Each structure stands twice: as C-alpha cells, then as structure tokens.
Amino acid sequence: MTHEVGVRELGLIEYRAAWQAMQHFTNTRDAASGDEIWLLQHPPVFTQGQAGKAEHLLFPGDIPVVQVDRGGQVTYHGPGQLVGYLLLDVRRLGIGVRELVSRIEQSLIDLLAGYGVEAAAKADAPGVYVDGAKIASLGLRIRNGRSFHGLALNVDMDLEPFRRINPCGYAGLPMTQLRDLIGPIDISEVADRLRDHLVRQLGYAQQKTLAGGIEAYE
Question: Does 210 count as an annotated binding residue?
C-alpha cells in the first residue's frame, strides 16, 4: 500500500475548464505533489483523442467537438455520466500503463458487481462492457510518468448523442448505462462507491476529501 490520495467532488464542470486544469496540475506538480482523483460531470460535448479519425464523428449537430490530448478515438460526455480524472504519479505507484488500465477497469467491474451487474473488460478495446454493450470508456495520457484524463461511466444520461458518432472508433457499438440495467440510481452514491473501489485497486492506504474546486489549476 502507498500513501493517501486526495479526492475532489466537483459537480458539473465545463469540459475545457477541467481539461486545462488537469494539464496545469500535471505540468506543475513535482515529486512531493500528492495524487488526486476528480469526480465530476460535463455538459454535452464530444471529445476526439489524439489519434482520432474524422470519419468516426458522424453528425455532431449542436454539440461541440473538442480535440484533446488523451489516447483513443471520439466519445461523448454529458450530464448523468460519471467522469473520473486520475491525476496520479504512476512512476511512484510502481505500475505500468497496462496495469493502470487493468486496475481502473477492475474498479468499474467491482463497482457494477455491487449493483448485481456482471461486466467485463476486453483486451483489444479498453473499457468495460455488459453483454457486449459499452458502459464505461477509458482514455489516459501519461506525461513524465504522471497520468491525467481517466474514465467515464454511463449512469443515468441521454444516450442519443452516442448514435452521432462511432463510439471509441467502433461503428455500431451499442452503449448502455446503469439506469437501464437496474432502474433509477443516484449518481452521487455511484461516485462514492467508485471512489472507494479506485482507492483500493490503486493501492492507496487512505483517502481524504479535498475542499475547493479547480480554480487554482486553471
């Protein structure tokens, strides 16, 4: 087990503001900086990863598209989707990138199991799936041994915008969400459970709730 991680629960945050804050946090941290997990939601936005291909963005309509510096193809964020940004010193944790992805996926699988939902990861397509439908997406960036970006779990949202893209670069990939599998669900409860699973899987000895928003990192 390693030292503690700080957790920020940020509510609904514009995507660009959160992205810029993540970059600033990562670029200015040093060996003594603590790791943080940010839990939040975004207003509707499509984000296109570094290797993203234009043909996977079918008809975005009135939803903005943002080119970003994470891995992966295009995805959608919107209210009712739980986003977790993982601002970690991966080198200090002593794990590789593939192991980090596996631990994040396992956190999501364990979380869903707690709701009676059987989920699984795919070796050739990062993320978490239920009966072939994607319920959670992953997209990370590692810079100088430190990670940012993270995961997005569909909890209780409008899934229609996913039909405007090839999600994560896969044409016709079905998407699902927790509400459709178990009925009405409180996203704040899901956030609390996800936080605990991430802390456990990533090997932190303890966690602390951090006050304040991301203003200091913008």
Answer: no
Tell me the C-alpha distance between 192 and 207, whole Å. Answer: 12
The pLDDT value recorded for residue 18 is 96
pLDDT means over runs of 10, the chain (218 residues): 87 95 94 95 93 83 91 91 97 93 97 98 90 95 93 97 88 94 96 97 94 81
Q: Are 128 and 105 in contact (CB under 8 A)?
A: yes
Give buried/exposed letters for 119-152 (b at 16+ CB in 10 A, else e): bebeeeebbbbbeebbbbbbbbbbeeebbbbbbb
Cα angle vertex 203, ends 182, 102, to 5°?
A: 60
How high is the pLDDT of residue 137? Answer: 94
Which residues are the active-site residues? Answer: 168
The verdict on whether residue 151 carries a ligand-binding annotation is: yes
Side-by-side strand order, sheet with 35-41: 120-121, 128-130, 133-143, 146-154, 81-89, 35-41, 5-12, 207-209
| pLDDT at residue 119, as a whole number | 98
68 is in an annotated binding site: no
Q: Rounded distance, CA 27 to CA 21, Å?
A: 10
Q: CA 153 to CA 1: how far, in whole Å?
A: 26
State CA 57 to chain mean position distance: 20
